[in-house]
């Protein structure tokens, strides 16, 4: 297996709008080793939340009342990581990618060229489990779990799953 370099990323949203990011989590993988996991609470536009979103992740308006805005968080991520890493991995990448793109549009942020891969898509190619949710896959594969639906923990779970998928793909006949 070649050495993998990527950032697993996860977003939690405050409402049904993809541009309502209230938490960002990343897990940095260098040479197939997890080197860092971070998360930031983010104040979504107008600090508005929907009841159902709060029920999923537990983040409330008072938690993000003094949090930085997305442009500030993204500036830090870009400055610290994007010169070295250009590949994001997410579990259900179309969702996370659309969150990033919609939020970048809202705040007029130029994202540049980013590559994406999806641990959910890979799981469906490699494994034959009843459920392919991130938590279920981690349980089935005995991958250490954090608090599901908290962005930093989900990003690290995704990174661990993705590394496992690359290790398992040849043995399971999966495609790369």
Automatic annotation (TrEMBL):
<protein>
    <submittedName>
        <fullName>DNA polymerase III subunit epsilon</fullName>
    </submittedName>
</protein>
<dbReference type="InterPro" id="IPR036397">
    <property type="entry name" value="RNaseH_sf"/>
</dbReference>
<dbReference type="Pfam" id="PF00929">
    <property type="entry name" value="RNase_T"/>
</dbReference>
<dbReference type="InterPro" id="IPR013520">
    <property type="entry name" value="Ribonucl_H"/>
</dbReference>
<feature type="domain" description="Exonuclease">
    <location>
        <begin position="5"/>
        <end position="171"/>
    </location>
</feature>
<dbReference type="InterPro" id="IPR012337">
    <property type="entry name" value="RNaseH-like_sf"/>
</dbReference>
């Amino acid at each position: 297996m070649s050495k993998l370099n990527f950032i697993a990323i996860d977003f939690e949203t405050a409402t049904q709008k993809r541009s309502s990011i209230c938490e960002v989590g990343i897990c940095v993988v260098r040479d197939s080793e997890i080197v860092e996991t971070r998360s930031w609470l983010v104040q979504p536009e107008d600090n508005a939340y929907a009841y159902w979103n709060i029920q999923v992740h537990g983040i409330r308006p008072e938690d993000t009342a003094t949090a930085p805005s997305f442009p500030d968080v993204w500036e830090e991520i870009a400055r610290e990581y994007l010169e070295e890493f250009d590949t994001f991995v997410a579990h259900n990448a179309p969702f996370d990618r659309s969150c990033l793109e919609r939020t970048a549009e809202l705040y007029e942020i130029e994202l540049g060229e980013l590559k994406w891969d999806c641990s959910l898509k890979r799981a469906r190619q490699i494994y034959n489990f009843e459920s392919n949710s991130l938590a279920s896959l981690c349980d089935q594969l005995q991958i250490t779990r954090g608090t599901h639906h908290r962005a930093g923990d989900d990003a690290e779970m995704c990174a661990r799953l993705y590394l496992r998928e690359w290790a398992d793909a040849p043995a399971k006949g999966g495609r790369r």
